[in-house]
Amino acid sequence: MTYSSACLKPIAMSATLLTLTGCSLQGAPSFPLVGAYFPAWMMCAIIGILAAVGFRVAFLALGIDAILRFRLFTYVSLGVLMALLVWALVFGP
């Protein structure tokens, strides 16, 4: 180990620790699910994806899908809206 690398190691560790000061122990909400802690955003994203697929199936069955101009944006928007709605209802203030 050279002198320069011996000096750089504490400086690098200090710089790394200083960048972590913004993190807190009470960060993203998490909850136990099947023995593991999952972040809430992952559950909301999965619900949003499932809702978008459900809207697609329902719109196909009702014949609404044929009159949509921007199908991809419509289903992505509906999925995001459902994910945000679940987030607000379950984890909101």
Give structural notes.
This protein has helices at residues 3-19, 40-62, 71-91; strands at residues 30-33, 36-39. The longest helix is centred in the middle third of the chain and has 23 residues, at 40-62. The termini are far apart. A hairpin with a 2-residue loop joins strand 1 (30-33) and strand 2. With 93 residues, it is mainly α. The model has no long low-confidence stretch (mean pLDDT 84). Strands 1-2 form a two-stranded antiparallel ribbon.
Descriptive key words:
mainly alpha, 93 residues, elongated
Give a brief description.
The chain crosses the membrane at residues 40-60, 72-90. The chain is mainly alpha-helical and 93 residues long.
SSE inventory with pairings:
Blueprint: H1 3-19, E1 30-33, E2 36-39, H2 40-62, H3 71-91
Antiparallel strand pairs: 1-2
Helix pairs in contact: 2-3
